[in-house]
Design goal:
The strands form 5 sheets. Strands 14-13-10-6-5-18-19-20 form an 8-stranded antiparallel β-sheet. The chain has a 4-stranded parallel β-sheet with strand order 2-1-3-4, sandwiched between helices. By secondary structure, the chain is α+β, with helices and mostly antiparallel strands. It has 12 helices and 20 strands.
């Protein structure tokens, strides 16, 4: 992606996604391979009056070197100034732009998954309190890099794989539309209407059924899928869109009321370690068994980070009408794959999805890891407080 298309993408990120304001500090969390996009973002930020654009360059290959050579007991160490920078950005009511993938899928292949799962960087425990404080307007966006393209399109040479992945990103980001922002505004308005209908049903739980899946996820009394406006809003009233692309509606579940078994419908990348064939059993809200054909130890390590890491912080519903699913491609990237299938997330919940009286009941953790469980063969049924069962998704189609 280059030239006028790159400039349009940067403007979509900075304007519609993060909604940068005059005088703001902007932190860009990015791998070293995303420099062309970072520079275009910087130009668009300064054109909107940003005070300073601060790229945090994260080198995923040094992450691999650390896993291979560092004392294993040190892998969870994070320099304190990393968190301090994020907290000071929050105090200044700045903005955050994260470019995915920070670590290409499969980069940590050959490394003990249990060790690889202990290094969470570039994710920081301070991210979640900052998100819940709603002091920053933020967005996560994709950028094609060769190591990622090889995994998504292994049958092509590097140049062809990159070209194909970039073509797909243009499509799923709606950059092929004459006015991408208008196209996104319309799509997000549709999702907001769906979320409003789900909330109107006042479900007590959601029941997922499919091959290898029979899972009930309880909801809190004030769990809601819709928001005050289509988009997220900061304490300063800045509306932003946290994911581009986005095709989901989501809420925080009751962290004590998830029971049953669930089988992932797509591979899961955990900071460079791919988990294939994931199967999880929940009892009383805790994941009591985490198994997989490959990479289970990496997820087990993450879910042992703190006492609530094995509980759920998010349940999200995705229909079959979004553009990502229509590509019929597994992107091996959570930002894209989670917006092609209904999903759950281990770890931290988002305050914005409940009312203040339930703030103390949502899950609090140092991790947030989404894994995909949905698809045309997985039905979703809402269960009301009086036990009535209401179809929500069938064959990837909304039933409400």
């Amino acid at each position: 992606m280059e030239g006028e298309l790159l400039e349009r993408y940067a403007e979509l990120i900075v304007g519609f996604g993060a909604n940068i304001q005059p005088g703001q500090l902007v932190l860009v969390i990015t791998s070293t391979e995303s420099a062309p996009l970072v520079r275009a973002i910087a130009a668009a930020c300064y054109d909107r009056g940003a005070l300073f654009v601060d790229p945090w360059w994260f080198d995923p290959y040094v992450k691999r070197i650390r896993a291979l050579h560092a004392d294993p007991s040190t892998l969870e160490f994070v320099p304190p100034w990393y968190g301090t920078r994020l907290l000071e950005l929050s105090e200044a009511h700045g903005s955050r732009i994260s470019i995915s993938p920070n670590t290409p899928p499969g980069l940590l292949d050959g490394i003990d998954p249990g060790l690889a799962g202990r290094d969470q960087l570039p994710s920081l425990k301070e991210h979640f309190p900052v998100i819940n404080a709603k002091t920053t307007n933020w967005v996560v966006v994709p950028w094609a890099v060769p190591a990622w393209a090889r995994v998504v399109h292994p049958g092509l040479d590097d140049a062809e794989a990159m070209a194909r992945l970039e073509e797909q990103l243009v499509y799923v980001l709606r950059l092929d539309e004459p006015d991408a922002e208008a196209a996104w505004t319309a799509r997000i308005a549709e999702l907001h209407q769906i979320a409003t209908r789900i909330d109107a049903a006042r479900f007590d739980a959601l029941h997922f059924e499919g091959p290898g899946t029979d899972l009930t996820v309880g909801l809190l009394p004030t769990s809601h899928f819709s928001k005050d406006s289509p988009g997220s809003t900061t304490v300063d009233g800045i509306v932003h869109h946290a994911n581009l692309p986005t095709e989901e509606v989501f809420t925080a579940p009751d962290p004590t009321r998830t029971n049953g078994v669930v089988t992932a419908t797509k591979p899961l990348d955990v900071s460079g370690t791919e988990i294939v064939g994931l199967r999880v059993r929940f009892e009383g809200g805790h994941a009591v068994s985490i198994e997989a054909d490959e990479g289970a130890e990496a997820l087990r390590a993450r879910c042992a980070m703190d006492e609530n890491a094995s509980r759920l912080g998010e349940v999200a519903l995705v229909d079959g009408q979004g553009r990502i699913g229509k590509t019929n491609t597994v992107f091996h990237n959570t930002l894209l794959d989670e917006n092609a299938a209904s999903h759950l997330a281990f770890g931290n919940a988002y305050r914005a999805t409940v009312s203040p009286e339930d703030y103390d009941r949502i899950n609090a953790s140092s991790i947030h890891i989404d894994f995909m469980i949905g698809g045309d063969e997985v039905s979703v049924t809402g269960v009301t407080r009086d036990g009535a069962r209401v179809p929500v998704l069938r064959g990837g189609v909304w039933q409400l």
